[in-house]
Amino acid sequence: IKNIGVLTSGGDAPGMNAAIRAVVRAAIYYDLEVTGILRGYEGLVHGDFIEMNRKSVANIIQRGGTILKTARSETFKTAEGREMGYQQLKKHHIDALIVIGGDGTFTGANLFTNEFDFPIVGLPGTIDNDLQGTDFTIGYDTAINTVVNAVDKIRDTAESHDRLFIVEVMGRDSGLIALRSGIGVGAEAILIPEANMGVEGLIQRLENGRKDKASKIVIVAEGDEVGGAFNVGEALKQKFPNYDIRVSVLGHIQRGGKPSCMDRVLASRFGVAAVEGVLAGQSGVMVGQVNRELIFTPFDHAIKHIDAQQVSPAWLKLVEILSL
Ligand code: F6P
Questions:
Q1: Does ligand 1 come within 6 angstroms of the Cβ of 103?
Q2: So where does Mg(2+) get bound (predicted)?
Q3: What residues contact residue 1 under an 8 Å CB cut-off, 6+ apart?
């Protein structure tokens, strides 16, 4: 292996730049050439490649987003699109790929590596933390800290006006952003798809909760079956007409910003491990960290996110105990 290609794909996540930097620097350390592929699989299909060196990744470890840009490619979902991508790699003499992204990225990588027997190693880069084979994904720590900072501010208003705030957070079909950030802000209730508390359950929780505390924070994961924070707001307004209720959807603020130190270190570790993995013959796998150890997990297993779907009842009990 002489030349490694690197790309970021799917939703951007804070720490992707730290991961790119680690891949580039590790490749150079091991005397490899490294090619940056722009706009994820879109750039791969269209041959949008740039040569990368030590300097092209200087001063990016602290920056959010991704310098390689990213996209959710429809073309790469087709067999023709992937064939075009393969031809581009051959033309540019690229021998292996390192892809940074989430489950969509690895679904594409899995098809590609099987179809063309082409070496690919993945790095988990998504704020959702919804992958199997790693305790944490790159971007999750920053995102939950962004949520905590935002909700702390909302709490000031909630307290001052005796209001109930329903705050919607991202996570697609996973409730892990909601769960951890909800505990971090001391939320009165957290609605996540893994638990399906429902509006009735929430009303019950609020009715059984403290009566002497008028301000309340409810965190709703966007993927919960209640169908978003505005739906919850409407239902609660009908049930509690005298309560001053506001809804806040945090949105893409959760994807941006400087990566936390935890995300920078995780990304750096993963980037070096991915290059070393490629050199050791790894392929069709995602690098992850479980109990502080680095491990490789096959793509088709990583995207099942079984652990993420099975939120331990102990976490939910924690929410109940702490919202007394
Ligand atoms: O996967 C990251 C994520 O931010 C999810 O939490 C969210 O559901 C989705 O991406 C939003 O995607 P887009 O930015 O394409 O609207």
A1: no
A2: 103
A3: 32, 95, 96, 119, 278, 279
